[in-house]
Write a structure and sequence with these properties.
Layout lengths: L5 H10 L20 H5 L10 H13 L3 H13 L6 H13 L3 H15 L5 H13 L3 H12 L10 H13 L3 H10 L9 H13 L3 H13 L6 H14 L2 H13 L6 H13 L3 H13 L6 H13 L3 H13 L6 H13 L3 H13 L6 H13 L3 H13 L6 H13 L3 H11 L8 H13 L3 H13 L6 H13 L3 H12 L9 H13 L3 H13 L6 H13 L8 H13 L3 H13 L6 H11 L2 H16 L1
Length: 632
Amino acid sequence: MARLSVINTICRGLSSFPGKVSRGQGPSQYPPLSDQLFNSTPQSGSFRLGDSTFYSLIRHYAHTADFASLDNVLCRMKLQNRVFIEKCFLVIFKAYGRAHLPDKAVDLFHRMSHDFHCIPTVKSFNSVLNVIIREGFYHRALDFYNRSVNAKNTNISPNVLTFNLLLKALCKLGWVDRAVEVFREMPLRKCPPDVYTYCTLMDGLCKEDRIDEAVSLLDEMQTEGCFPSPVIFNVLINGLCKKGDLVRAAKLVDNMFLKGCCPNQVTYNTLIHGLCMKGKLDKAVSLLDRMVSSNCIPNDVTYGTIINGLVKLGRAEDAVKLMTAVQERGYGVNEYVYSALISGLFKGGKSEDARKLWTQMMEKGCKPNTVVYSALIDGLCREGKPNEAEEVLSEMIDKGCTPNAYTYSSLMKGFFKAGNSHKAVQLWKDMAEHECIHNKVYYSILIHGLCEVGNLSKAMMVWREMLEKGCKPDAVAYSSVIQGLCNAGSIEEALKLFHEMLCLETESQPDVVTYNILFNALCNQNSISHAIDLLNGMLDRACDPDIATCNIFLRTLREKLDPPQDGREFLDELVIRLLNRQRVFGASRIVQVMLQNFLPPKASTWERVVQELCKPQKVQAAIDKCWRNLDS
């Protein structure tokens, strides 16, 4: 299949627009008048301080976040029996919000009536509620709502903005069902939902993977006479793209045009990102062409997404060429793009190019962050140079860049891979000095590495420490210890640990790797019936055999049985059992192993596999998988 000339296509898009233009400076801001003028005015002839004067002072102090002077003004107004109006408090609430002081805002709200004889309305209430929510205190926001709205003798009647804020808090907490109930109550409270209401609820539903409900709201809002904005469509398109439903996402874009609602940068960037995540780079570039032809200017995010998409397809060199073309047109490239490129070049065996790119990044004044440093460290470790990677780690720390789990785990794996387990253990100990908490990722890597080099006793010490600190092992850690025990001939202990896994949470459940370790150990000890029982349990737990599983049993049937068997009947039966469970791809994978070993399945089995694969709803999935295999 001819490869798409991505670089040329995108460069045509770049040439359609001039280079980036720096933003002009806005009008100069004159400093506010000093309050000394106001303090001196009682001696200035017949002039007398008015309420507007105090309001100007309040605005000035609120803008400068001078809350001490602000309190003095309020006290002075109170002493002079001034009339407090709500707009003064609204200015102060906004100032508290900018200063991240929700407690101050709540306290002042409750004092408005008693201390200043100003009855708060829904405007003040909404302002304070917004301050609380913007700080992420969603539980407190709901409590504030219930105490204020449902209180006796309250003057607060919720409006649409109130409900929008309430829905936002509920959705942020994941209480989407409650949010739907509030949404349905709004018309009964004479507050019909507006476009922001629908947008908030749709976003909450999408985040809970309830896409169909979110999409159904689109029709409902139009029926109610509320016309969707680009933001509404973007929320739904983003939800569908994350789910991988690009067909429906594309239909929504068509729907946008029909409604006279033009897609914007966010729309196109979301779709391009979704296509790149699915490996459909050619369609992503076609969409970029459509974006340009619609006079929608691509931005840094657009090109960064396509560059990252090229890297994921193993085309890091093409991605570097595109980055160069993008930079020549004046577009910036951030640290995350550099990280993807450096990582991609190392994985593709282009270590020199990766190093050159690192140097280029530094020369262009792009300061590396944790992500870029980690990509370089991981690449050097993949290249078998953990000592050089450790030097990069030291530089990273010296420059005030904090290593993360990926940084340390890459370096630990690098030392284990190089056969330097002592250095990996020492790195584990050094992590505490940099206030890096040992989590299950680190424990898993350390346990796996120690078991790989045959140091089971030390691995078990780390295992016990992990359990004592309340850190739950994952499937990798369990599998590593089981492997170590099997290698040491302690299969009974390994099986005890395996049965322990079966009682744990999903992330600690045995996977096909765990099963293969036990299959191999049992078959080597001629416990073939036990291995078959374990295989039956594996199938019952919806875990499909892989190529390694098949090869273990093929070798056992040929070498351990008398007379030996070729394994054809065994694998054929396994295919049927998987088909009966509607696990078609697992069955087709075993057929692939049979064909590679010149063990053709029975005609009836072959017919069933073909029929299942050719069902209309599965054809596209099979075709997509073939294309992915060809691209790789």
